[in-house]
Amino acid sequence: MRRPSLSRLIFSLFLTSLAWGHFISVSTSEGSWDGNKLHLTVKLPRYEVEQVSAEKIGAAIQFAGARQVSNVCAPLGEDLACEMEFVFDAAVGEKVEATVHLARVTVPNHVHMMKLVRGGVMRQGVFDQSFETERIDFHQEAPLETWWRGFRMGFAQIGYQPILVALVLLIGWVAMPSAYLLTACAAFFVVLPDKFYAPPGFFELATALGLSYLALERLFFPDAGAKWVVAAVIGAIEGAALAVLARPAGTGAVSLGVGNLVAQGTLCLLAASFLRNIPALWLRRILWAIVALGAIWSIWVSVKRF
Length: 306
Hints:
By secondary structure, this protein is an alpha+beta fold. It has nine helices and nine strands.
């Protein structure tokens, strides 16, 4: 009885993942002080905030002991740029507490990278749905502390990417997880310092096609050879996607990417260990659901992103 229950859980995951059909969504902000005034420039992907008002965006960014006195948003290429100004009620201390809940008004897996410069010292805060409040310390931080913050953020982000979870579980289940992970890691570290860029829609479409292809291959060609080639190609695409989307984190991009890749590796191992013996009836149902998910998502991405 347990196996059908597990199968139903996986089946539901594949179907509901369409609602959060995004990779890691990243926005950035840069701020500097003039006395007790903080000027902050925020940039967000336009395709995610088309239906979000400037008031909601402004309300999603707060600083303890400060009030927002202006917020003007305007399109800037593929982004929406918002110029915000905050006035602190008292002299700014060595630690500034910032709260960002953009994940509530954009998409659940949204990550915001905030860089603040004060007295020639630059510090960075990273925010997502799990870590909405951070105390930014303008004292020198230990490198390990900075690295750990990015790592835990990248690891936790897998929970807000059910489409990626579905793909990684499928790789670990029917393909070659070692080939996928090796090329994903290689592509991440090769692309990260490069200037290569592709819009999120490209990677989303590639993932949708990869989902459908793997499921169809398992349905009609279960004994096909060279599965590692397909897994390696998909891994290279996903690693490049992670590098492009983590790049705005600057010095924290490596730890963010490593955390996400470790989470993917953990899922691959779980899939390889526990999803091998699903009953044939549920196996076909799940695979056809994946085919449908990939096809629907491909159409949605083509219409929405391009």
